[in-house]
UniProtKB/TrEMBL annotation:
Taxonomic superkingdom: Bacteria
GO biological process: proteolysis; signal transduction
Annotated Tail specific protease domain residues: 236-483
Species per Swiss-Prot/TrEMBL record: Chryseobacterium aquaeductus
SMART domains per UniProt: TSPc
Protein name, as recorded: Tail specific protease domain-containing protein
Length: 517
């Protein structure tokens, strides 16, 4: 027991020292020479590890952009300042999964405890980005009586439009699609802002609502007893929370299933993230209910779903297919050795390092036997999703509608592209944020720039749906395009889902009329 207490104490001291050292580095300026070395490092690692870095930009043009950036680095910068210089160039690769991790302050346990005892400052609202404007569309706590539809004009006297323009340069979707940015920017705007400005206890914002400008002072409030009890309740993992994958931080479920009509003819499945957590059970139970109810129509909603597990979408597709299928094409690698460059021991304390060392032989051989060279001389990685999968016994045979928008990214785009190509579903909504012809993700090599210490994860697998490619360099285009305005959102009017409901109602009515003849 004394030994374990000593180890725990040593790890705690080490962790505190590491936090202090990392935070000190954030405020230390880096010389231009060292930053230029970091730029060269990022460029070389991109060429070495990324299997498709020149998909949307030529090698010559990309090299020019890196060289041009180096020529502008002429004074010392902090890691955060350097991030805002380098990330816009990384974004020019136009691969949505490829991004530097913005340097952020770390907190010790005491600081984390204090933050958890308080409510958020900006995180208590839901936002909407349109053009170069930021709106509040939901104010659950009625903070300062700010009404939904209010535009935030400035934060601490700096125009929001300046931040939006700056932060847009940091975000890259797959290819030349334009729908992704606004959806993603509304979610990460204040991540960028806080990384740049630091965590605040108060902020002055200028708002505009119904033609009236107003100055509002936001304050970080302490949580009361009711808030703390609510936090405890949300942490409890009930069976329902497990199977629907409850996310306490957002007070929402990753998955939901319900019937939309009294006769259970229309089933609705909302999937917020393909997290894989308890997904087997969710789909088994949901499609069991669908079969028992003899459902005729299924609506799958993957709007605002940033993706996740290939395993989960392969499993979902097996409940929709009528014959054996292959979800994705063979997954290309930059070289046969890149799977061994995933930084297996990253973020390991002494205990984790020892445990991982024991497990490393198994990891090494699993990677070794997963790599093969194709007849074309290219290195590929074996995955279950590259192989033929049989449909489930209770696979749904009725009509399928899929709701998509610019927030449908990564795995969401893969399954949407496959369903559209096979004509298994009617896609309704907006062009997806992820590319129709695939993306680079899978698993990552976690690189760290040597001087700025900025993390640079690089996806190693080219993931492409098993379809004939569109070669449009854009997202999955819906069969029926319907855009949702901010006013629709404020009025809680789902025009995309309503269109499907109306189509189903028309089809039902037509069937009734035919049967009555």
């Amino acid at each position: 027991m004394k030994y374990f207490l000593f180890i725990f104490f040593a790890l705690t001291i080490s962790s505190c020292a590491s936090v202090k050292k990392d935070n000190q580095h954030l405020t230390t300026s880096i010389s231009p020479e060292k930053m230029r070395e970091d730029i060269d490092f990022a460029y070389l690692k991109l060429q070495e590890l990324h299997p498709k870095f020149d998909w949307y930009i030529s090698k010559t043009e990309l090299k020019f952009k890196f060289d041009s950036l180096k020529s502008t680095i002429n004074k010392p910068l902090t890691p955060v300042q350097f991030y805002f210089k380098l990330q816009p160039v990384i974004a020019k690769v136009r691969e949505g999964h490829l991004s530097l991790k913005i340097p952020a302050k770390k907190f010790n346990r005491k600081e984390i405890k204090v933050l958890k005892s308080k409510k958020g400052l900006f995180g208590r609202f839901e936002y909407h980005v349109e053009d170069n404007q930021l709106y509040i569309i939901e104010n659950k706590d009625s903070v300062e009586n700010i009404k939904p539809g209010t535009e935030i004009l400035s934060i601490n006297e700096v125009p929001v439009s300046d931040y939006l323009q700056k932060y847009r340069e940091l975000i890259n979707s797959d290819g030349y699609n334009t729908t992704f940015q606004n959806y993603y920017l509304k979610d990460v705007f204040f991540n960028f802002y806080v990384a740049e400005k630091g965590i605040m206890d108060s902020a002055k914002i200028e708002t505009l609502y119904d033609g009236e400008r107003k100055i509002v002072h936001l304050k970080r409030e302490s949580k009361n007893k009711v808030d703390k009890e609510k936090d405890k309740a949300e942490k409890k993992r009930t069976p329902e929370k497990k199977v629907n994958d409850y996310v306490a931080s957002t007070s929402s479920y990753n998955r939901n299933f319900k019937f939309l009509d009294k006769d259970s003819a229309v089933a609705y499945m909302k999937i917020q993230s393909f997290s894989r957590t308890f997904s087997n059970r969710f789909y088994k139970e949901s499609f069991g209910k669908i079969k028992n109810a003899e459902v005729s129509y299924l609506i799958i909603d993957i709007r605002n779903n940033y993706g996740g597990s290939l395993y989960e979408i392969n499993n979902l597709y097996s409940y929709l297919a009528s014959e054996p299928f292959i979800l994705v094409k063979p997954s290309e690698l930059a070289s046969s050795v890149t799977p061994f460059k995933t930084n297996y021991f990253r973020r390991s304390n002494p205990f984790h390092y020892a445990l991982k060392s024991l497990l490393y032989p198994g990891y090494f051989f699993s990677q070794l036997f997963s790599v093969y060279r194709g007849k074309d001389g290219v290195a590929y990685y074996k995955m279950k999703e590259n192989k033929s999968t049989k449909p489930k016994k209770n696979a749904f045979k009725g009509k399928v509608y899929v709701l998509i928008n610019g927030g449908s990214f990564s795995a969401s785009s893969v399954i949407a592209a496959k369903l559209k190509f096979e004509k298994r579903a009617i896609l309704v909504g907006e062009e997806t944020g992820g590319a129709n012809d695939g993306t680079v993700a899978g698993f990552y090599s976690y690189q760290k720039l040597p001087h700025s210490k900025i993390d640079f994860p690089i996806g190693l697998l080219l993931i492409q749906p098993n379809i004939d490619f569109s070669n449009t360099r854009k997202g999955v285009v819906p069969d029926i395009e319907i855009n949702q305005s901010m006013q629709d959102i404020l009025d809680k009017r789902d025009v995309q889902l309503d269109w499907i409901k109306n189509e189903i109602a028309k089809e039902k009515e037509t069937k009734i009329q035919k049967n009555s003849l």
